[in-house]
Amino acid sequence: MRERADQSDAAETNLSSLPALFPAQTRSLVFEAGGKRLIDNVDLTLQHGSITVVMGPNGAGKSLLLRLLHGLLKATSGDVLWGGRAMCEDIRRRQAMVFQQPVMLRRTVAANIDFVLKLHGTLQRERRDELLEMAGLVAFAQQPARALSGGEQQRLALVRALAAQPDVLFLDEPTASLDPASISAIERLVRLAYDDGAKIIFVTHAFGQAKRLADDVVFMHGGRLVEQGPAKAFFDNPNTREAQDYLDGRLVF
Amino acid sequence: MRMISVLASLAMLWLAQGMQNANADDNFIVLQSTTSTKNSGLYEHILPNFTEQTGIEVRVVAVGTGQALQNARNGDGDVLLVHSKTDEEAFVAEGYGVKRLDVMYNDFVLIGPEGDPAKVAGQTSPAEALGRIAKAGVPFASRGDNSGTHKKELLLWHSAGVDPKEHSGQWYREMGSGMGPTINAAVEMGAYTLTDRGTWISFKNKGRHRIVLEGDTGLFNQYAVIRISPEKHPHVRTKLAQTFIDWLVGPDGQAAIGAYRMDGKQLFFPNASDARS
Amino acid sequence: MHVHDFFQAFRLAADLVLAADADLMEIIGLSLRVSLTALVISSLIGFPLGAAAGIWRFPGRGLIAILMNALMSLPPVVVGLLVYFTFSRVGPFGWLELLYTPTAMIVAQTVLVTPIIAALSRQVIEDLNREYAEQFRSFSVPPGAAIQAMLWDARYSLLTVALAGFGRAIAEVGAVIIVGGNINHYTRVMTTAIALETSKGDLAFALALGIVLLVIALSVNAAVMGLRATAMRYAYA
């Protein structure tokens, strides 16, 4: 996708000139709203080079954690550190996020991608066409984005996020309301992004999806970080009672 | 999208063009005028002659005499043409005007509804006529706007020994409007009202109203012209303004005024030479 | 004014338009020129202002919203007086010699229309921002670019806003008659011409002019709505 092979020298130089984002850490992270503690004292460390899946029941604080990591929300107390530095605009510009409900700009499909390319000063027709091709949306390039189906919109949202060439890609239950074919397409795109060197942090409810994608798992419950570890170990033999119950519940239904 | 931007550019060009045209020509004067002279169509009759002879455009701003005087005090005009002698003399005395010159006259008439409910017809003096209206309590529409006509009307009430303001909101209706809207209202309300003859003759919406009183010397209506003093407002176009006044009170202007007819009737009677002699 | 006059007015209106009466065309031309110029200027000021008020959170934001909404109901006569005092010889900008010119009329209508554009576009942009805000924050869109993008994406809604502004400008008489003076062949527009004919008692003719004004307003609205409908099929959903 990014033709790393051809441009590897340039890419390496570019990467090395930027400060490292990893390990990413939260320290005693607390988020409160309406008098309720929604994120409760989370200490989390994330490493580069893996797909991390965040799991947990409704109201566990998965989406909030993602937004705190991405700097969309301000922590009540505690820190979010990327490579030892506090969250700032420079760091966020190296990240991208795909939301559960894709936010489509009221423009054509192509213009949606151009918007992000332009923000990053990389507006090129070839680059846009390449992203459209990846999403399988070439035929819809000049259609209004909001006229696309739900699955198409989410594919567009994903490649639009990739237009920023993010080092970190957050996905907040991107396939929650999609059909199986669309889910498969999204997962393929996530894999591509991962292969291209992006750190993936993926929130999902879907047990099967987690198993398919995860290298490691972060399990949240009641705003607390309950368990973190390699995916296989988590699914086969969770350490905590909460995780066991959650997995059991999922398996029953 | 490209077509829209082309259209937009063309539109902007057109708008900008208009603004330029608007300010290009400097050969004009602003005449602060009473409404009666404008609504009667007099200016459209006489001004083209003047503009043809001199090349000077006369921009007429028609408002009530009160507002015209105030605008002129503010220096927003070069020449004043109104009909309220006391105010005009004060205007000159205060130094805002150079000199007051009589231009023309017509007269005021009292108009009233068909059937003449206050039995005004046949009276000879305005005082008696108004006294009857007050006594009968028949609606009377007053300009109520400090215009020359309004001031004249108040003088007539005074001579009738009636203070109409005591009955304001009852039979005495202060319209707060120009002559035309006041007549329109009088026609609808079946009210009497005082108007200058010129406006009445040229007025289109007479309904069944008619003149019930006319001809008394107390109804005389003199129009005068005043050049605005450059001492108070140095920017005024003194030379152009004087050219206009000279023409207006001179033979050509006076003849043009006298020649104006509406429905075969003369509306204004030039009398500049009377005053000067 | 009687039933007869009422029908007479429609015939007169038709005759005026069909004959392409030169005076009438001049008056229509000036009306459009003044109101459209005022609209363009108001839009250039009002859209960014409205967008900024709709997007940015700052202290006193609610107060500004109330103020903008209140200014929408500013009576044209009051605006006329304010502009009159500004451009009168005794006013601060008398030396510009703009009183009783089309430019003064444009200024007055701009003052009249800008609050409408700003207040209504604030509403439109605020709604859009509710949808876009988090995504834009994620993209790290700079504030200026965010305003630009939202104005562009809301363009068809803003077209309706502009129409509301145009309607106010083309229909008002109170402001332009004071600062323009209703000077024949110079500052006479549709509404002041209607006022003049009314004061001449020629009610049928006044109404005929009113009908012509209505037809113009209808055409402008139809044209814009047509454009909006076509454009929406292409770039918007």
Describe this structure in words.
- The complex is a heterotrimer of chains A (253), B (277) and C (237).
- Chain A has helices at 4-17, 62-70, 89-92, 109-119, 125-135, 150-162, 180-195, 207-213, 231-236, 241-252, and strands spanning 24-33, 36-46, 51-55, 77-82, 85-86, 95-98, 168-172, 199-203, 216-221, 224-230.
- With 253 residues, chain A is an alpha/beta fold.
- Chain B has 277 residues and is of the alpha/beta class.
- In chain B, the strands form two sheets. In chain B, strands 1, 2, 3, 4, 5, 6, 7, 8, 9 and 12 form a ten-stranded mixed sheet that branches. In chain B, strands 10-11 form a two-stranded antiparallel sheet.
- In chain B, α6 packs across α7 (148-160) and α10 packs across α11 (251-259).
- The longest helix of chain B is centred in the first third of the chain and has 23 residues, at 2-24.
- Chain C has a single domain (29-199, 212-235), classed as MetI-like (MetI-like fold), CATH 1.10.3720.10.
- Chain C has ten helices and no strands.
- In chain C, α2 (22-55) runs parallel beside α5.
Quick tags:
A: 253 residues; four-stranded antiparallel β-sheet; globular; B: 277 residues; D-Maltodextrin-Binding Protein, domain 2; 2 domains; 45% helix
